[in-house]
Each structure stands twice: as C-alpha cells, then as structure tokens.
Amino acid sequence: MTRSTPPRRRMLALGGALALAGLLTAGPALASFPAKPVTLIVPTAAGGGNDAMARVLAQKMSQLLGQPVVVDNKAGANGAIASEFVARAAPDGYTLLFGYIGTHGMNPALQKLRYDPIAHFEPIGMVCYSPTLMVVNPQVPARTAAEFVQLTKAAPDKYNYASAGSGTAPHFAAEMFKLETGARLAHVPYKGSAPAMTDTIAGQTQLMFPSLFAAYPYVKGGKLHALAVAGAKRSPLLPQVPTLEELGIRGVDVTQWYALFAPAKTPRAVVDRLNQALLAALADKDVARRIEDHGAVVDPSSPDALGQTVRQELAKWRGVVIKAHLSAD
C-alpha cells in the first residue's frame, strides 16, 4: 500500500483547510447536496474496529455536511452483503460504503463475487490504516512467535486461529504465517472481528491476527497477549512488540486500510463534495486522536489515489492467493 511522504500533521492541516474552503464555496450544482440524511453502510457487525471508526467519522461528517450521516451495519459474507448493497444503490451520494482491505482487496482476490471492487464503485478517499497484530490468549504457554510455532507442531490438533471470515485480513495473515513457518493451525472463521476476538479472549480459539485498532484495548487490558506485529515496523503504542520480520519470519506484512466508496456513476461533483467533507473530518484533532489512540494512522487521500490503491491491492492479494493456495472453503 503506497502512502505519501510529507509530514502527516502538516498535510492534514492543509487538507482540512482546503476541504473546508471547498465545502463553503461549492458551486450551485452542489447547493442542495446533501438534502437528506446520508447512510454509511458498514460491512461488519456493531462493536468491532470498523464500526468504531465509522461512527467516529460519521459523527463529524454529519456536522460538516449539515445532514445526519447514519451508520447501518450489514454484516455477512465477509463484507460482500454490504458491498453488493452499496454497488446496487442509487448513484446519488446518499448511500456510501465504509470499505476496507477485505471488501476491496482480499475477498475479491479470493473468490468470484457479485460485485467488482473497481467497476461497481467510485472511490471517495482513504480514511486510515492500521498494522496487524499477532495475538494469543494469555493462557497459551508461548511468549514468542517461535515458541508458538513449536507448540502447534508438537500438538497439531490442539491449536486453531480465529478470523473475521474467509477473505479477511486475519485469514490471509494467518495463512501467510503458516506458509512461512510451517505452523499447524486450523481455521475457525467467524462473522466479523468482534466475535472472533471474543472467542480468542475466552480461549475457544488460541490465535488471531486482528488490526491493532481492534486489538489494542484488549492487549492493554491484559486480555490478549501480543507476540508480534505483522507489518513493516513496530507500533509506538506497543514499542516492546517486535515485527515478525525482526524475528526472521518474512513475507507476513498485512497493513489493514479503511476507506469510503460510493456506487459507480455517482457524479464527480458529489464525490468531490464527500471527499472534501472526509478530509475536513480527518483534519479535526479530536477525530484524529480518537482514531490514532487505538493504533490506526489517519491517511487521507484523493479519490484518484484511493482508486490506484485498490488496483494495487487487488493485484497483490491475487498473487498471495496463488502462492498460498488459498480458497474460500
């Protein structure tokens, strides 16, 4: 996933100022948009990391747009139900998708779906990204990734991993980890990150690769133990936790990203208006703090830049599917 290089705070301040100016000076064609509430469809269950981020964003965008932005959770089929719903919605800017790496990268790479992540959507803008953590139930007698791998090899029928469903980041990360280490783990898919995390905390499953955003409160509270970061660098929130690459486990780099999409053929003027509101929301210090306190990094973008990211991500994860012999079963 490519990112811009200038200092993020300066970019956010400038982007927020320009976005706010755009909202105030929009032409007559946009004078009536939005004239009614906007619905933000979230493809996961309430209570998970995606849901929490979407609600923070919706609250601020409601203020900026002058109309309620209502969050509607449509979990199921690993994000496909929500994505299909938005893809078929009227292209008028009133139905949006809080998409993420699963809906627009991994799941379409894994299997044939009834929506195309490129052809059926207009990108609005990136929201943020979050590293992926390797976490275990605290009762698991391993304090390093290597120790955990040895446990699974010694008792291959004893250990399993939870995911938010086939075609999601926790699924891909765990399968990449198995491929690189030879760990013996069974896959237990759930209908979303929240129930998967709940069962890992309870000990029904032993391992998970959630986003740092979703896992951090539980790691901080001692309910989960972080063994490693499945990303390029350590997290400032957990500086003592090494990356898998530092531990000699290469090829498991999963950066989970989150973004807004509209149905295809939404007028560009409406897309730009929504992008301006998004940039202004992300430039708000309280919004940024609430997102970043959980380990995500605010990462605003233009619609075109998000479109390029989606194309790159699809190509990347299709390669992983082939290499790891993954399937939706």
Automatic annotation (TrEMBL):
<feature type="signal peptide">
    <location>
        <begin position="1"/>
        <end position="31"/>
    </location>
</feature>
<dbReference type="InterPro" id="IPR042100">
    <property type="entry name" value="Bug_dom1"/>
</dbReference>
<comment type="similarity">
    <text>Belongs to the UPF0065 (bug) family.</text>
</comment>
<dbReference type="InterPro" id="IPR005064">
    <property type="entry name" value="BUG"/>
</dbReference>
<protein>
    <recommendedName>
        <fullName>Tripartite tricarboxylate transporter substrate binding protein</fullName>
    </recommendedName>
</protein>
<dbReference type="InterPro" id="IPR006311">
    <property type="entry name" value="TAT_signal"/>
</dbReference>
<dbReference type="Pfam" id="PF03401">
    <property type="entry name" value="TctC"/>
</dbReference>
<keyword id="KW-0732">Signal</keyword>
